[in-house]
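Board notes (copied after class):
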Amino acid sequence: MMTQTLCAPLRLLILMLLGGAVHATSLGNYAHHAEIKGEGAGPFFHLALTMEVYRNSLSLGLQDLRVFNAAGEIVPYALMLKTDIPQPTVEQTELRGFPLYSDAQTTNQGIQIRREQNGALVSIEPSKPTLTHKLTGVILDASHVVAPLVALDVALPEYRQPFQRFRIEASDDLKDWRGVHDSATIAVLTQGDARIEQRRIELPALHAKYLRLTWIDPQDIPSLPKVIATSSATLPQIQPELLWSETLPPLPSKNGEIIYRLNGVLPVERIRFLLPQINTLTPAQILARNNDKQPWHKLSDTVLYRLASKGAEFLSPDIDLEGEAISELQIKLDARAGGVGSTPPQIKFAIQPQQLVFLARGNGPFTLAWGMAGATANTLPLATLVPAYRYQDGLPGNLASIDVNKIDSTKPLADRDTTNTQMDPTIQRKWLLWGVLVAGSAALLLMAWKLIRTNENIEK
């Protein structure tokens, strides 16, 4: 009788343990879910996660993601991390430049070109003397660069203007030129002790033997620029494009602070500040934190600007953060610059969405679910999910997506009662198992104590 009494709590705990396991596979236990639309038969599918997934996940690092089949079973999946994507070999090469001059009658025309047999430029000279001998551009020799050109770093010996604008064209024979960039801009700005230089021009993985840079304002060119080309081997496109947020205003000001809330803990790649007034320039310090309980930490010192010059508008470049997890941003403006006016700047931010790869086990439709507090990771390494996977083959499986306009959402259990947060079933089962073990140990101790007392009474 005593044994049956002691075993009753054990049986109850075991039933609770099994109930938690059933609860873990319930799609309704997750606050958000969306049907996955795939092309083809699989067995693998890949999809790029959306901003809604990042914003509504209740676990840092997307640990609460799950993929269900039509039977309500969780199917295996992997997240493609940055570490899964090898970085291409990057080389930097200084390109030899040849000046282009013009006079009042001609512009970058009437030139004589001498080349070696391998295509390397020897000289570029005017076919006739020029009157004003005004420097208008430069031809760059990239014939010895093998990999595609992805960026140029353009530096001038001196800067008579804070901005330099030029067109970029490409050619393989110095006769037929194709446009690459209509208005590339480099900037060198100073404000007190602060200095910002933006000399990098991104290129679209360009194959070209020669580049032609033609200044839009040629009177501002003091001498030939120094140009460093960045080249990189092309890898399969296995990362989706950056996702940009909507425009976010700052929170209501407290003690003059300018704070922005991102509506989630998000891996921010870039921040863009939108200044309200033209001809604004101010040094700024950018800080961040994960929640309002943490102290602020500095991300960057920069110069924010929005300037008009010669009919064009120049904006400060985006700030790169390399995926740091952030929920709130703060900017501190340098008072010496006079601020930004009565209206504070707005911001936009971008994230690099991860690719989710899943195995289509069972029947569809398949559903992506997320939104469970305290969840632990359920993802597999990509090399485990897809045996013999090679990044050279591109993304594994067929393309899939979720319809962000048809995301089904219920209020998360964690938000219904903050004092009784719904736990991840994995954690719940772990604590229940410990409860079973503790209860079993207590029952054995009680039985042993009863047995000892019985023996003592018999001996007496």
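Comment from the instructor: The chain has three domains: 2-85+354-428, 90-232, 243-351. Residues 41 and 398 are 8 Å apart (CA to CA).
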